[in-house]
Amino acid sequence: MELLTADSKNISRAAEIIRQGGLVAFPTETVYGLGADGLNPIAAAKIFEVKKRPSFNPLILHISDEKQLFDICEINTDIVHKLIETFWPGPLTFVLPKKPAVPDIITAGNHTVAVRMPDHPVALELIKKAGRPVAAPSANLFSKLSPTTAAHVAKQLGKQVDIILDGGNCRVGVESTIISFEDDDVYLLRPGGLNTEEIEKITGPLKHKRSSLKPEAPGMLPFHYAPSIPIYFLDEVTPEVFKNKKTGGLFFNEMKKISGLTDSKILSPSGNLMEAAAKLFRYLHEFEDDGIEIILAEKIDEAGLGKAIMDRLKKAVKKYS
Ligand code: TXA
Ligand code: MG
Fold first, then answer.
1. Domains of the chain, CATH where assigned
2. What is the pTM of this model?
């Protein structure tokens, strides 16, 4: 594995690796992605192997130019064009009917494919230079914390990736919002970096699908996105649970007085949800790295990006409850 600064020369090398069927971890505005040639089934298979990801969990294809859409999916509603115009490049993923060029391994056998144009200069240059859609899940092991720095990727996937392009911290910090279309309805499959309120200005109210163990978007598994240490909501835990344990408190905008905390982190002292989302995974990684044994997280309002933040926290808590 080579950890390289994401300059133009290294991006060209990384694009060549992708064309040859290798794996490149790269920054996007949401989280780091583990990228492979999205039209090469063998390259895509490596993603599943390295992430230890179940094969029923389909991948997102990343594009750098709207023209690439015509090779990979059907756009069956005008709303998609309007959403693309408004939000791309950006943290919004569409699930659309796939075209035959997309290998089954990418879609896990579904007739639909997920697509997104990331809002990050390194990601866009890499996809453009690779000259094909780049399949990329978040660059973490299955059901573990998503990476928002190159070091997070190296920690989990290290040697198994050919190149990690270091582009610093991810600006948004939580994965993209995913929507799908059925008849005249638009469904929210995963809350994420784009506020649902913004999307609903164009689509009208989004419908919801219930989470299940056989999910349409495995972001919909009832647990997912979890740190490797137990995490509980502050208001749902009794002191016995964290007695004599190295305990980390994760607060929204101010510290709460709780005795027995080893470390405390505030997601955004000014109460800014964008800042809080950008720091969420970073702080959970830091707790892991610092040997914290249990995390107590404060709940936040589920408005705007609060919805994506609480989705990730609830799933992490569920894993340990
Ligand atoms: O922000 C993001 O979306 C990041 C960056 C790297 O772009 N990627 C990401 O990928 O979060 P991943 O694989 O960790 O999550 C993709 C989600 C999964 O929950 C998957 O089930 C869902 O997208 N998905 C992919 N294809 C789908 C399809 N055809 N139908 C329904 N859900 C799909
Ligand atoms: Mg993921």
1. 2-208 (3.90.870.10), 231-320 (3.40.50.11030)
2. 0.92
